[in-house]
Description:
The chain is mostly helical and about 100 residues long. The chain has one domain. Helix content is about 55%, strand content about 10%. The protein is built from 5 helices and 2 strands, in the order ββααααα. The protein has helices spanning about 15-25, 30-40, 45-55, 65-70, 75-90; strands at about 1-5, 10. β1 and β2 form a beta hairpin. α1 packs antiparallel against α3 and α3 (about 45-55) packs across α5. The chain is globular and about 35 Å long. The two termini are about 20 Å apart.
Amino acid sequence: MPLVVDGERCEARLTLGALAELEDSLDAESLVGLVERFEGSRFTSRDVVALLGAGLRGTGKHITDAQVADAHIEGGPMAAAKAAAELLARAFVVPE
């Protein structure tokens, strides 16, 4: 999924390794709990940063969550939250 970070067009994807990283770093009992937080609009900025960071690292970009937090995401915080939610949703879509 495309994402513009600090003026650079990047791709983001939640790989199995990125999903495992999220389980370790976020206060969710499971990834289903994280999905439920997003579905219920109860996510935090930390959730958004962690998802975007994991997604960017899932495509090989060397970026820390601290760098993501300080980065300019094109479209601002709302676009960042939407991108994080979309990344998470795409990770759980079953191919037909």
